[in-house]
Amino acid sequence: MPARRRRSAEQYSVFLNVPYDSAFENLYLAYIAGLSALGLIPRATLEIPTSQRRLERILRLIKQCAYSIHDLSRVQLDAKAPRVPRFNMPFELGLAVAQDVGESWYVCETVPYRIGKSLSDLNGTDVRIHAGTVNGVFGALCDIFARKTRPPSVQEMYRIYLVLRRNLPNMMRQAGARDPYGARVFRDLVLAARAEQLALSSKREALGRAQ
Fold this sequence. Notes:
Radius of gyration: 17 Å
CATH class: Alpha Beta
Order of helices and strands: HEHEHEHEHEHHH
Shape: globular
Largest sheet: 5 strands, parallel
Oligomer: single chain
CATH architecture: 3-Layer(aba) Sandwich
Distance between the termini: 39 Å
Number of helices: 8
Strand order of the largest sheet: 2-1-3-4-5
């Protein structure tokens, strides 16, 4: 990829650090839909093949992104034995913070004030609460990227979400996947969201010219 094009992609890339489980599926789609509606490019560790150099690849991926969003909602014990909490999300947040002490990383949660107990080092950080709902995720993203020019409406985000929700079963069948948390399905979701975002933008611009 040419250097200019690569820098442009990195400028709009967002590292998405979220739980990969069935209970989070709707919010996972909401994050992809909302970020795409904002003209941003979701990136995730799902893109990284399993290998002994996984940590290095995660670091490289975070560095390639202008922003990172870390959802620390999953503080419960795993349902499967051995029952332990998942540390991937706070660990990847720590990696992002260590690389950039600016305002390029953001934290989301389901329950207000809980993060003060689960990760007290973040006291003083503005944590966005989405309450575990799709619209809550959209609201959190609109808050995070409030300075973006010509931001999309929540309704436009939801339209992209519905496209992803409707097409996800077929994407999973084509990929031979049992869940949406695989490299190919993630790629297909991002491409579908991007295509719908471009269609909505074109429609918005056409309406603006007609007025």
